[in-house]
Amino acid sequence: MHGVSLTPTVPIDLASMTQAPYPLFPPIHANP
Prior knowledge:
Elements: H1 2-19, H2 25-30
């Protein structure tokens, strides 16, 4: 679950961070 969720979170996190920093992305991306 974590591995599958991490894969799509990495690219989405980069795009989201560039547009606007979300509180849900940072913690999910930080958690391995």
